[in-house]
Amino acid sequence: MGNRTVLGLIQSRPVADPAANLSKSLALVRRAAARGAKIICLPELYRSAYFPQANRAKAKHLAETIPGESTRAFSALARKLEIVVIVPLFERFGNRFYNSAAVIDADGRLLGAYRKVHIPHDPLFYEQSYFEPGNLGYKAFRTRYAPLSVLICYDQWFPEAARASALAGAEILFYPTAIGYIKGHKAPEGDWRQAWITVQRAHAIANGVHVAAVNRAGVESGLDFFGTSFVADAFGNVLKRAGTSREQILVVPVDLSMNRRVRDGWGFMRNRRPDSYKALAAARP
Question: Residue 150 in contact with residue 99, Cβ under 8 Å?
């Protein structure tokens, strides 16, 4: 693994047909690879419409196993093109269901999966009706091109998840996402999109890592997904950003040697005081 690699972010507009989403996503990943991307990530729940808008809809038929149809298809493509692919999907594991992401290395091997830990439950985001909290922990996947972690959507608001992933050895945090505006609602506190960008840039700075946020785009029923997929470097600079409403492939070269310089410069890691953080795990709001 060198210090330089190229990230590919697939900002897509999934439809209701899982087969169509798989076929289109394979084509989009091929296009990203043709433009030089080596680590390519799809958005959250790439293979379906965002069904958690409804509370307790029938959705179990949309779930698949890991390994399964999606991972087999993307493993074959990864092997052929020598790319790393992150595949976020609705996972069925026996009688349990998770919001997950499979990580496939450049030789086609399935390195494992991450299961979303923080599960929201709010109007139009009724995810607790469908997903159990992830039980695989935070981990760094040692891919051919870089060690990386995957955290999913709502995880991006929790600094503990980012820090745990960085401590596990990740140089890049990928956040496959499905977030947007609720149609007809104006938040009195301000623009959710700007807050979303800001908190992830902060994770990059605080942990000395690159961050790649991969969102959906387009209107689905009551939600207007605001796109804006982006990559930020370890100093929080946004290297490249997608538009707000259309499908787009973002290809972004990154120099991960910056991570070490930023970490050494700020000293956040070497000056940590874990002995003073015990109250974090015990505290309740």
Answer: no
Nearest CA to 86 out of 16, 2, 29 is that of 29
Of the listed 24, 153, 171, 220, which one is catalytic?
A: 153
Which residue in 153, 146, 201, 154 sits closest to 170, CA to CA?
146
Q: What are the structural domains of the chain?
A: 4-282 (3.60.110.10)
What is the CA angle 74-76-82, rounded to 5? 90
For the question of residue 116 being annotated catalytic, the response is: yes
pLDDT digits (tens, 9 = 90+) for 33-87: 999 999 999 999 999 999 999 999 999 999 999 999 999 999 999 999 999 999 9
Q: How is residue 176 written in tokens? A: 């496959």
Distance CA 91, CA 176 (A): 15
CA atoms of 100 and 113, how far apart (whole Å): 7
Supply the pTM of this predicted model.
0.97
Q: How far is 53 from 160, CA to CA, in rounded Å?
A: 27
The verdict on whether 41 is a catalytic residue reads: no
* Rounded Cα distance, 246 and 167, in Å: 35
* Rounded Cα distance, 76 and 121, in Å: 36
Q: Exactly one of 24, 41, 91, 116 is catalytic; which is it? A: 116
> What burial letters (b/e) apply to 241-261, b meaning 16+ CB within 10 Å?
bbebbebbbbbbebebebbee
Structure tokens at 231: 């990559």
* Strand ranges inside the chain, DSSP E: 4-11, 39-41, 84-93, 96-104, 110-115, 141-142, 147-150, 172-176, 180-182, 210-214, 217-220, 223-226, 230-232, 238-241, 248-255
